[in-house]
Amino acid sequence: MQNYQHILLAADYSEHCDTVARKAKSLAHLYQAKLSLIHVLDNIPIPDTGYGTVIQLDKDYDNELLEAEKNKFIRLCHRLDIDPARQWLVWGVPKQEIVKIAAQEQVDLIVAGAHGWHGLALLLLGSTTDSILHHSPCDVIAIRLQDDMPASKT
Ligand code: AMP
Q: For residue 90, which of 47, 82, 97, 108 is within the disulfide window of CB 3.0 to 4.6 Å?
């Protein structure tokens, strides 16, 4: 099997984010692969901005909420030592934007967390990773998250 060369970490800032990030970092180290990071902004309104817009990290925005999200993202990238060319903060629907950036950047492995929901929980709450699995252009590793897992710092 050929080694993975470009890994995309999907980070959602949940209490489990650090667990997923640590796995992605170790995989990148193991395969000597490039590591990209994506966070999709779906929790704040950004007027006059279309879904799929990449937020420029070197620009100051008038929107206070967006500035706060941008700075949080920059801090996470810094903590995980992500190359500036591989930092993706995108406005949109997570499952769509993650797959889109993976295809665009020729990623060969996506790393995301999975709660293991099934049945009604899956139907009602949906699962980003489940959808990524169905639409991804490349391999996907789902890191099993347990809801009683101790929270870790992000
Ligand atoms: P969920 O299905 O919302 O519990 O999310 C499962 C996994 O999808 C998370 O552990 C992340 O890896 C990824 N994910 C969810 N939301 C986002 C987001 N807004 N940006 C990037 N990745 C996300």
A: 97
Averaged over successive runs of 10 residues, the pLDDT of the chain (154 residues) comes to: 91 91 97 98 92 96 95 96 98 97 98 79 74 95 78 47
What superfamily would CATH give domain 6-145?
HUPs (3.40.50.620)
Q: Would you list the domain boundaries of the chain?
A: 6-145
pTM over 0.85: yes
How many whole angstroms from 60 Cα to the centroid of ligand 1?
26
Q: Is 128 exposed, middle or buried (0-12, 13-18, 19+ CB in 10 A)?
A: buried
Q: How far apart are CA 94 and CA 42, in angstroms?
A: 7
Protein residues whose CB sits closer than 6 Å to any atom of ligand 1: 10-12, 20, 38-40, 42, 94, 98, 112-113, 115, 127-129
